[in-house]
Amino acid sequence: MAQTPPRSPIRRVFKLIGYGFIGLCLIAGFQFSRLHDLGSKPNFTSDLMKLNKDVQFIEANSLKFAYIEKGQGPLILLLHGYPETARSWHKVQKGLAAKGYRAVAVFMRGYAPTSSAADYSVRSLGEDVVALIDALGEDKAIVIGHDWGASAAYEAAFTSPEKISHLVAISIPHPLGTQPSFDLFSRAFHFLYYQLPTSERLIWSDGFEHIRSIFKTWSPNFNMPEEEFEDIRNTFQTPDGIAGPLGYYHAVAENGAANAAIQPDSKISVPTLVIAGDSDGTTDLNWFKVAEPAFPGGYSFEILSGVGHFPQIEKPQFVVNLITNFLDEN
User: Fold this and answer.
1) Going by DSSP bridges, is the β-strand pair 272-277/164-170 parallel, antiparallel, or unpaired?
2) Cis ω on the peptide bond leading into residue 113 (within 30° of 0)?
3) CA–CA distance, 289 with 173 (Å, rounded to integer)
4) 65, 43, 45: which is closest to 56 by C-alpha?
5) For residue 11, is it left (φ>0), alpha (ψ between -120 and 50) or beta?
6) Closest Cα partner for 82 from 243, 195, 220, 221?
7) d(Cα 150, Cα 135) in Å, to the nearest integer?
8) What is the pTM of this model?
9) How far apart are CA 147 and CA 81, in angstroms?
10) Concatenated DSSP letters for 194-239?
């Protein structure tokens, strides 16, 4: 008989204190929509030439993935998070290519110009990683993920360790580190916010300034370059631009513990480097320290001072150095 997977900590948080707050948020959201005319969705126009610059396409896991490739050597798969794109890796990607790696930055499922999807569960994200390694013609790869990309990387490393030689996770701890607490709930507020039926409209109604505010909140010491913001906005202005990224958050609420194979008691057997900033508004550094027992294959944890949620954008050369030193030592 199939066993029911254990409930994840974040799911318990949703059940213990989240539902009441979600109800309040829903009421507030509906009232906001009633009192503020957000109007119909504008006919956004993306710069398709810029969107597709240097982009290649490949079929994997029944989707058409867009990616940017630089360098030659062992394959490194770069997986972005929210609210970012494959281009958010461009400085790290350039640095890794210069060090003798084939650095492939992927536009995650639902992020244009990659196909949209019906399923945004972490299980599917992990399957994407494995399928992409195969589609790119390699037996295994070094996998580096940030935010949702880190969740995808953890999932793939747990379910298919034979496909991953090394794992690097940025800004997101293993599920063992995220125990139920008010702190976890307060830092995961955006998970609740994005359940609102008005959330997509609220994001585009101000010209995507909400995205800029996320960077300021999650990385308070960092001023996002305008070119980074324009790359993100260009992706989100496509017809289904924001629906896919928000689908990741909807999947957590809809699927609960079944959203991922990896659970708090899951072990990762591949050598792992985790990088976090001490000014990240979404996490507590203790979460990463608590998670160390989940990595019997080796665990290195590096903290970047004054850095927020986006180390690969804020301090790209530091990140490149940490990654290459880790790979050299392992």
Assistant:
1) parallel
2) yes
3) 9
4) 65
5) alpha
6) 243
7) 20
8) 0.87
9) 5
10) TTSTTHHHHHHTTTTHHHHHHHHHHSTT----HHHHHHHHHHHTST
Q: How far is CA 208 from CA 32, 42, 204, in A?
A: 18, 12, 5
**Per-residue CA distances from 33 to 196, 202, 271, 285 (Å):** 11, 9, 48, 37
Helices (H), the chain: 9-13, 19-35, 48-51, 90-98, 122-135, 148-159, 182-187, 189-193, 199-204, 209-218, 226-236, 243-255, 285-290, 311-314, 316-329
pLDDT 10s digits, 264-299: 999 999 999 999 999 998 999 999 999 999 999 999
CATH numbers and ranges of domains, the chain: 9-329 (3.40.50.1820)
> Which pLDDT score, from 0 to 100, does residue 42 have?
55
Q: Which pair of structure tokens corresponds to residue 28?
A: 């507030």
Asked if 183 contacts 284 with a C-beta cutoff of 8 angstroms, the reply is yes
* Structure token pair of residue 48: 């398709």
* C-alpha distances out from residue 124 to 105, 131, 248, 259, 267, Å: 18, 10, 10, 9, 19
pLDDT of residue 181: 56
Tell me the sheet residues that pair with 301. Answer: 274
DSSP 296-330: TT-EEEEEETT--S-HHHHSHHHHHHHHHHHHHH-
Fill in the DSSP letter of residue 172: -
